[in-house]
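Q: What changes when adenosine-5'-triphosphate is included in the input?
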Amino acid sequence: MKSKGIKDYDLLNMPVKEAYNALRENVRAYNKEEDIKTITVLSCKPREGKTTMAINLSISLARINLKVLLIDANLRNPVSVSHFHNNNNDIGLTDYLTENVSTEDIIYKSTIENLYCISAGTKYPNPSEQLTSIKLTELLNVVRKRFDFVIIDTPPLGSAIDGITIAAQTDGSILMIKSGNVQIQTLREVRTQLLNFKIRVLGTVLNRVDKREFKRHYSDYSYFNNKKNFKRNLAESKKSNKVKLHG
Ligand SMILES: Nc1ncnc2c1ncn2[C@@H]1O[C@H](COP(=O)(O)OP(=O)(O)OP(=O)(O)O)[C@@H](O)[C@H]1O
Ligand SMILES: [Mg+2]
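A: The predicted holo structure follows.
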């Protein structure tokens, strides 16, 4: 199997490390109860921290000896080139969806033990159409048998349907929200969209909360909330006074 480097993040920063570990434990708890394995990372707007979270969550899971696959499904603005230390001509998800390419050809072993990745692949027109291919369903079926967890990074919901298309085929999703960045009305619309497509939101992560706020509230950091709390979170995120990850 070919291998690739992956940028390791600042896991020595204790509050951040703690937050990712807690997120990991919540994900594992879901997995134990209901065999939740394939997880899509979503956000309403660009640059809310999806990729950062997808990579760190994947690393956090891999570090406790779980076999993890990270898929870059942001076909519009792939991050794999920089984050996976990719070569521009490496094949990936789009090549699998459109060409006669096997899973072995696109799954790379990363430099982190137990962590594997699939990069976005060659840029083709109409990424949304590619994602409706039956081959995506086939790929997810294959990888869910081979890995303990599959984490999928997507483009923001506001700019493309891709996140919804993928999330509708995975066991659950995590919604990343950058503190103070998203209007409550936008969150309500996204929630309706997710409900309409029967997408299961495992929880929300409120990202980049002010450090002073973190210090004031860190004893109360419930950064990963279950579906029951989702509605309440929408209201709370407006106030932005619950600390999840700080930046
Ligand atoms: N908790 C944080 N603290 C500090 N910086 C952060 C944090 N989370 C993300 N960032 C930074 O914010 C920027 C955007 O993050 P990232 O690329 O993960 O967002 P994204 O949602 O994947 O963006 P896109 O929608 O473009 O794919 C990056 O420069 C990243 O390093
Ligand atoms: Mg991204």
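Observations recorded in class: Confidence is low (pLDDT under 50) at residues 219-247.
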